Amino acid sequence: HETPLILPSLLAADWSKVGSEVARAEEAGAQWLHLDVMDGAFVDNISFGPQMVGVVRKASPTMFLDVHLMIHRPDHYLERFLKAGSDNITIHVEARYDTSVADTLKRIRAAGKQCGLALHPDTPFDAAIPYAHMIDLLLIMTVVPGFGGQPFMEKETMPKLEAARDYRDAHGLKYHLEVDGGIYASTAPIAKRHGANLFVCGTSFFGPSDARTAMTDLTASVA
Ligand code: DX5
Ligand code: ZN
Known about the structure:
Helix content is 35%, strand content 19%. The protein is an alpha/beta fold. An 8-stranded parallel β-sheet has the order 1-8-7-6-5-4-3-2. Helix 6 links the parallel strand 7 (176-180) and strand 8 (198-201). The protein starts with a strand and ends with a helix. Zinc ion (ZN) binds next to strand 2.
């Protein structure tokens, strides 16, 4: 979990040309791509579903697809996201489940994929402790989930990120620490200092016209 990675978030890409946007991220050196699934119920916005994951998978057979499910009943929809080509599936601890968080994490791993748990800015780190030994990734949301382009909630979320890192290191665990929301070359170093190694970048990556320069600047900020 030491190597910092910049993850372009498809939410901020130009969806009129998804295939070439994925290629642009790939050519800029992205190894992981972040896909935000929103259901209009768990969050106040609707984005896309498993079909889009399949489109991205088709556009790039090698990109690691990090799928962030901001939806209720992720366990009900799980097979569809697995089948579409997800490499990591992150579920929210605050969502409603037909089964349970633990059962859903186990099913993702049983399918041979990585699993993550996400925490809303209002949710304390303690909520993740029961699952800490079962996850590959812990996502500390640094904005209220639902929309790109919001400001980084430093004061509200950095103590939690640090707690997540300290707990991991004290217990010999290995989960990645991912931050998502308001990450720029100015804020990524703050998150890095508090333990993050995966940096989701929507506006800061897809906003500028030159993706290579955006990637270089973001990568340098956490080097
Ligand atoms: C927010 C999403 C983020 C979003 C980040 O609900 O989970 O992944 O794309 O966008 P920026 O980087 O613009 O804050
Ligand atoms: Zn996200």
